[in-house]
UniProtKB/TrEMBL annotation:
Cell membrane recorded as keyword: yes
Keyword Transmembrane helix part of the UniProt annotation: yes
Protein name per the record: Energy-coupling factor transporter transmembrane component T
Location of the protein in the cell: Membrane
InterPro entries: ABC/ECF_trnsptr_transmembrane, ECF_transporter_component
Spans through the membrane: 12-36, 51-70, 77-99, 119-138, 204-229
Keyword annotations from UniProtKB, A to Z: Cell membrane, Membrane, Transmembrane, Transmembrane helix
Membrane topology reported for the UniProt record: Multi-pass membrane protein
Length: 232
């Protein structure tokens, strides 16, 4: 397992967000998505990386099929699913990597190093703790409902959507409000809102591997910018 610096991850976020505003050819999009998936493998999450790579290949194949049948109803559905939804796939890949491998302390350290305002630091720190907590609560609710014989399988959830909404999603959304409030209070109690100087136990080093991956990312960004300008 090789650590990836928070600075490199910040570059990934910028790169993924920039891709939303440009239309690139399918081979280049696939290369960029493979680049994002490679970070999962680098940090030791090999199965996660393989799973996301399979998703990228499916979206690439679907986008190619959508171009074969562009003028009929199935083609329009394929176009929306694999091309429209596929445009946000890089964001999903980077978000999955960030949420699964980034510590909140590292993220707060980066935000303070770039002199981000407090109104940004506090919500981001709460957000990164929010989703894992909600995922845990969802698992708890599913176990409780299975014990009562409700939504035992995923098929039951699809066949009985109203029951699923009533017994799973409504309690989950209701609990999410309390979770957000509790996490915000916990963050403020720990002094994250204090305007004074801060110290950090995190030691963030920019290694040779980070330099290599950033250079590769910049090359892909340059290719994307060149293609976008050429198309314009």
């Amino acid at each position: 397992m090789r650590p990836i610096s928070i600075y490199t991850r910040f570059l990934l976020v910028i790169f993924a967000n920039a891709l939303i505003f440009v239309t690139l050819p399918t081979p280049l999009v696939l290369a960029i998505n493979i680049y994002f998936c490679s970070f999962q493998v680098i940090v030791g999450r090999v199965r996660k990386g393989q799973a996301w790579l399979l998703v990228c290949l499916v979206f690439t194949l679907g986008a190619s099929l959508a171009m074969v049948f562009p003028e009929n109803l199935p083609g329009h559905y394929l176009l929306f699913l694999f091309v429209g939804v596929g445009r946000i796939l890089p964001l999903v890949l980077v978000a999955a990597f960030m949420m699964g491998t980034t510590k909140v302390s590292e993220l707060v350290y980066l935000l303070r190093k770039i002199h981000a305002p407090q109104w940004l630091v506090i919500p981001v720190s709460v957000l990164f703790r929010f989703f894992p907590t909600v995922r845990h609560d969802y698992a708890q609710i599913r176990r409780a409902m299975k014990f009562r014989g409700i939504a035992v399988t995923t098929g039951d959830m699809v066949r009985h959507p109203m029951r699923t909404m009533e017994y799973i999603y409504v309690p989950l959304l209701n609990n999410a409000t309390n979770v957000a409030s509790d996490l915000t209070s916990a963050a403020l109690t720990r002094g994250i809102g204090d305007p004074g100087p801060k110290t950090s136990i995190q030691r963030i080093a920019f290694t040779g591997l980070d330099a290599l991956m950033c250079a590769l990312g910049l090359v892909l960004m340059g290719c994307g910018a060149y293609v976008a300008m050429f198309q314009a």
